[in-house]
């Protein structure tokens, strides 16, 4: 027996493989060992009674399930053991994991969709229930459940799970996710009751910035199928059907995602989801049709409460209002320990991300009211947390609280998709470390079931451009693959209805009166996101699944570019959105015209599809050709023979360099000109959504690392650290969402939680710390830290598909460089030291290196250099 242990097997990208939709889920495992250089040479998988026998293979990630496929509801235990190069004996078996299929065919569903009868008022919340008797003991029970709206289910008075805001938001016309719950322990022989708490959610509530609600329908509904297996082999099935009853007179008076929730405890209905409750006054539900072919099992984790934060301070504002500060801009809601008080006492909580001159700054929320209200019943203290809403906030204003509000009366409950955290970064500059922390919080707040632009105002849409730039960072920080796979499936489904045009946001709603057109940098999400996920996870299956979407996007994009790839139709495009030169009321007015950006993106995306074709063994020649034509067009139109780009902008140079659009002879000059441009911009950000994520990489690769560091460490506005110096705890939509004088930016869109500009974290991970995949899925890793002026140490860790990789370096006395890396089992690594020496190979295990480098020096300012900050 060797000193090798194998963690429990995972199936596809599931955290909990219960109720999965794959019949032959691919399996992965992570080995841990202290044996240096350990590599797997063989494995044996056991799936139920099936065994693979010893398979001579080093593969441990997304290994095919060669056992017979799972049938609906079928559960099989899986385990693996492995052999290393020098191991005569296999490792011990990994701990067993049960992999269980959900309902795989529409025919498995006997449940009917039931709709409560709703009153005329908006945002009503319904309770639905029925009782049933089990005349035999319970051996195993599963609840398969979903809703049109957002729901929580209860059995005999207990919540069936800790999932919140289920079923989340998908393109409901195409796909509605159900979830499988193991409810064996919640049922008893004899009388039982099942109840559902149902609010409008994304399905029927307000969505988007047009003030419209009911995008998918104006009635909510629930679909539940409870299957109880008895020891004698028989099965009782209880489903939503005409026997259910409902009421909208329960304690939750109203709930909306944007508006918040009101509870009136005087309307409490104790025991409503337990047997014996008198529902004679309730109304029979209406049974409706639902296309069971749209029901799908989830591919990623659900939304959960992931953290509870205490209140940092309760203060009184200049105008005398009671304010609560959580110390962190977050997404979720407050849990209130309500005191006793006279029946009818109304406590109101308004939320906001910032204070403006000491008062709650709600203007950025636009039409989102973000207000929760509790009405006391005079029957003692209670704990209350809204159920069907979420807010983006750091501050809250509380009115009507009987007596004095104490910090311990409130807690913030953080909500987001329950992704596994996989990446960390820290460095010697606390502001940069805080910037990174802000990126993490920005991601947490905006990965609430779908990847959104912002979590607080009346928008919260799955903007494709935002994720396109942020996907590399996201996939380092958390395991996003399961969640994004679902989103990409929706993207493809929406795209099919728009002739290949990828909508600006997914799920798509026709919010604006004009037709969708191919949007540079936004639609490219169809290509970039699957490619990034492939790079980071090695999942070729995902790439194959998105192939049609990727190619349809290129065709639509090329059609807009026109025969000569010159985007002749003119018109509007977001382009380098929110360029720092754009005035607050015209975020599209960038330094770099959108046609220039579009030509560059066309080249890059077409080439990426050609690379994907190679991976998938498909013919990608026409994409490769298109990519080269677009690159040539870019050069002809926008680059001088020497490599000067037509627009004096960081974005134009960064695109040319990073998307590899230049001739070899032009690169060096262009790189120098980019550095000069950044200097001319006073080492400030002078780019927008699409350019900014490329600038530091372009500088690094052009040998202008010090300039990249100047940009990173800039603290004046606009810069990444400006917001940090202003006390930001998330990434902002605008560099100056908060102006230096404490006034909120007058622009129409001023979010304080927008992850897009946090995309720089990917450069922090890959270049500053120096941890990057050198082969898909980190099967080979590149450790190439690049110390620069202003930092003396940096470190990063990443849970690769093979286990933990880590890097940590320190620079002492300006020249003594020390590096520590951990290479996960079963991988190889190349280590590139910053002294210019040849790359070294490193096998699994921990390695230390030292070298002497030239002291990193700040960029020399020419004598006549004009620093706008010095003259401010
Ligand atoms: C804004 C969104 C988003 C951006 C679009 C173009 O409304 O907040 O970040 O992608 O515009």
Automatic annotation (TrEMBL):
It is an enzyme of class 3 (hydrolase). InterPro entries: 6-hairpin_glycosidase_sf (IPR008928), 6hp_glycosidase-like_sf (IPR012341), Alpha_rhamnosid (IPR016007), Bac_rhamnosid6H (IPR035396), Bac_rhamnosid_C (IPR035398), Bac_rhamnosid_N (IPR013737), Ig-like_fold (IPR013783), Rhamnosid_concanavalin (IPR008902). It comes from the Bacteria. Residues 420-768 form the Alpha-L-rhamnosidase six-hairpin glycosidase domain. It holds the Pfam family Bac_rhamnosid6H. It catalyses: Hydrolysis of terminal non-reducing alpha-L-rhamnose residues in alpha-L-rhamnosides. Residues 138-307 form the Bacterial alpha-L-rhamnosidase N-terminal domain. The keyword Protein transport does not apply. Residues 1-22 are annotated as: Disordered. GO terms for molecular function: alpha-L-rhamnosidase activity. Signal peptide: none annotated. Its EC number is 3.2.1.40. Residues 317-416 form the Alpha-L-rhamnosidase concanavalin-like domain. Residues 770-845 form the Alpha-L-rhamnosidase C-terminal domain. Gene3D superfamilies: 1.50.10.10, Galactose-binding domain-like (2.60.120.260), Immunoglobulins (2.60.40.10), Maltose phosphorylase, domain 3 (2.60.420.10). Keywords: Hydrolase. SUPFAM superfamilies: Six-hairpin glycosidases. GO terms for biological process: carbohydrate metabolic process. PANTHER family: ALPHA-RHAMNOSIDASE (EUROFUNG) (PTHR33307), ALPHA-RHAMNOSIDASE (EUROFUNG)-RELATED (PTHR33307:SF6). This is alpha-L-rhamnosidase. It comes from Geodermatophilus nigrescens.
């Amino acid at each position: 027996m060797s000193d090798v242990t194998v963690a429990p097997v995972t199936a596809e990208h599931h955290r909990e493989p219960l109720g999965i939709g794959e019949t032959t889920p691919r399996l992965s495992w992570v080995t841990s060992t202290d044996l240096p250089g350990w590599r797997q040479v063989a494995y044996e998988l056991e799936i139920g009674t099936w065994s693979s026998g010893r398979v001579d293979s080093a593969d441990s990630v997304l290994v095919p399930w060669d056992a017979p496929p799972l049938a609906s509801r079928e559960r099989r235990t899986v385990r693996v053991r492995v052999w290393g190069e020098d191991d005569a004996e296999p490792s011990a078996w990994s701990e067993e994991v049960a992999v269980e299929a959900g309902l795989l065919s529409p025919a498995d569903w006997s449940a009917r969709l039931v709709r409560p009868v709703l009153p005329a008022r908006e945002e009503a919340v319904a309770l639905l229930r029925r009782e049933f008797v089990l005349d035999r003991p319970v051996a195993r029970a599963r609840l398969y459940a979903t809703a049109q709206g957002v729901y929580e289910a209860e059995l005999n008075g207990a919540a069936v799970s800790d999932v919140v805001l289920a079923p989340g938001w998908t393109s409901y016309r195409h796909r509605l996710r159900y979830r499988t719950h193991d409810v064996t322990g919640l049922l008893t022989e004899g009388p039982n009751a099942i109840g559902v708490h149902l609010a409008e959610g994304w399905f029927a509530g307000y969505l988007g910035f047009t003030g419209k609600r009911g995008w998918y329908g104006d009635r909510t509904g629930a679909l539940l199928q409870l299957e109880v297996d008895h020891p004698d082999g028989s099965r009782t099935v209880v489903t939503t059907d005409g026997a259910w009853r409902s009421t909208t007179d329960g304690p939750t008076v109203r709930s909306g995602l944007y508006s918040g929730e009101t509870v009136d405890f005087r309307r409490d209905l104790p025991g409503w989801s337990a047997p014996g409750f008198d529902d004679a006054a309730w109304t029979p539900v209406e049974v409706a049709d639902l296309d069971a072919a749209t029901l799908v099992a989830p591919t990623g984790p659900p939304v959960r409460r992931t953290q509870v934060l205490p209140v940092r301070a309760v203060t009184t504002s200049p105008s005398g209002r009671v304010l609560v500060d959580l110390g962190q801009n977050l997404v979720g809601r407050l849990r209130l320990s309500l005191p006793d008080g006279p029946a009818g006492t109304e406590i109101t909580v308004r939320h906001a991300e910032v204070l403006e001159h000491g008062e709650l700054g709600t203007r950025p929320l636009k039409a989102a009211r973000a207000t929760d209200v509790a009405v006391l019943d005079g029957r003692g203290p209670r704990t209350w947390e809204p159920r069907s809403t979420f807010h983006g906030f750091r501050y809250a204003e509380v009115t009507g609280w009987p007596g004095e509000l104490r910090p311990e009366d409130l807690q913030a409950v953080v909500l987001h998709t329950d992704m596994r955290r996989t990446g960390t970064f820290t460095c010697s500059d606390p502001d940069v470390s805080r910037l990174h922390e802000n990126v993490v919080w920005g991601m947490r707040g905006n990965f609430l079931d779908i990847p959104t632009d912002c979590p607080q105002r009346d928008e919260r849409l799955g903007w494709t451009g935002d994720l396109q730039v942020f996907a590399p960072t996201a996939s380092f920080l958390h395991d996003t693959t399961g969640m994004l796979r679902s989103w990409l499936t929706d993207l493809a489904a929406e795209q099919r209805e728009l002739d290949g045009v990828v909508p600006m946001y997914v799920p798509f709603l026709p919010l604006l009166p004009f037709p969708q057109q191919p949007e540079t940098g936004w639609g490219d999400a169809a290509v970039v996101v699957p490619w990034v996920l492939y790079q980071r996870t090695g999942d070729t299956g995902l790439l194959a699944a998105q192939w049609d979407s990727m190619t349809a996007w290129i065709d639509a994009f090329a059609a807009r570019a026109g025969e000569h790839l010159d985007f002749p139709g003119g018109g509007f495009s977001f382009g380098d959105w929110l360029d720092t030169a754009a005035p607050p009321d015209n975020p599209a007015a960038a330094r770099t015209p959108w046609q220039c950006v579009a030509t560059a993106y066309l080249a890059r995306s077409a080439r990426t599809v050609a690379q994907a074709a190679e991976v998938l063994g498909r013919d990608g020649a026409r994409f490769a050709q298109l990519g080269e034509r677009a690159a040539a067009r870019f050069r002809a139109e926008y680059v001088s023979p020497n490599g000067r780009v037509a627009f004096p902008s960081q974005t134009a140079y960064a695109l040319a360099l990073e998307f590899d659009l230049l001739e070899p002879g032009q690169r060096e000059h262009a790189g120098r000109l980019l550095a000069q441009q950044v200097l001319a911009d006073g080492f400030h950000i002078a780019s927008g959504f699409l350019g900014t994520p490329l600038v530091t990489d372009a500088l690094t690769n052009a040998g202008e690392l010090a300039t990249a560091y100047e940009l990173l460490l800039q603290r004046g506005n606009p810069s990444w650290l400006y917001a940090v110096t202003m006390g930001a705890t998330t990434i902002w939509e605008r560099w100056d969402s908060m102006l230096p004088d404490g006034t909120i930016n007058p622009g129409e869109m001023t979010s304080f939680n927008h992850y897009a500009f946090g995309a720089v974290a990917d450069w922090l991970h890959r270049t500053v710390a120096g941890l990057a995949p050198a082969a898909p899925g980190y099967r080979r890793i590149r450790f190439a830290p690049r110390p620069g002026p202003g930092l003396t140490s940096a470190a990063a860790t990443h849970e690769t598909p093979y286990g933990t990789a880590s890097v940590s370096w320190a620079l002492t006395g300006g020249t003594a460089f020390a590096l520590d890396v951990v290479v996960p089992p079963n991988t190889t690594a190349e280590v590139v030291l910053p002294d210019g020496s040849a790359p070294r190979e490193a096998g699994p295990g921990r390695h230390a290196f030292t070298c002497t480098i030239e002291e990193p020096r700040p960029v020399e300012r020419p004598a006549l250099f004009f620093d706008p900050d010095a003259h401010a």
